Design the sequence.
């Protein structure tokens, strides 16, 4: 799947992307009768597509909306690969009710 193949819909606020075949989120959404798509902030679409093309399992992201640095949550299975790709770990997700454990938050933007 090439980068252009991910795009489903684009508007001023969000870009709707087709989740990659390797995505556990895609499988979950299809099982629940939902479309296999997610909406991403336009300014980080290319970063997210690059992560997907590298096999990274993302679970959420935000561009920061000019108030904070852009970030992405990844499954624990993608932690080592994110570090190898040069991404900076923000912090492990805090354990609290309703939050899936084992997620890690990385800044979008590499250390080098």
Sequence:
């Amino acid at each position: 799947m090439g980068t252009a193949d991910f795009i489903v819909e684009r508007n001023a606020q969000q870009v709707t992307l087709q989740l990659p075949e390797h995505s556990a989120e895609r499988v979950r959404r299809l099982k629940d009768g939902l479309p296999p798509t997610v909406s991403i902030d336009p300014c980080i679409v290319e970063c997210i597509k690059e992560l997907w093309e590298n096999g990274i399992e993302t679970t959420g992201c935000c561009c920061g909306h000019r108030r904070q640095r852009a970030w992405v949550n990844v499954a624990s299975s993608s932690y080592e690969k994110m570090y190898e790709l040069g991404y900076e770990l923000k912090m492990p997700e805090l354990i609290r009710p309703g939050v899936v454990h084992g997620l890690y938050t990385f800044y979008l933007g590499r250390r080098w």
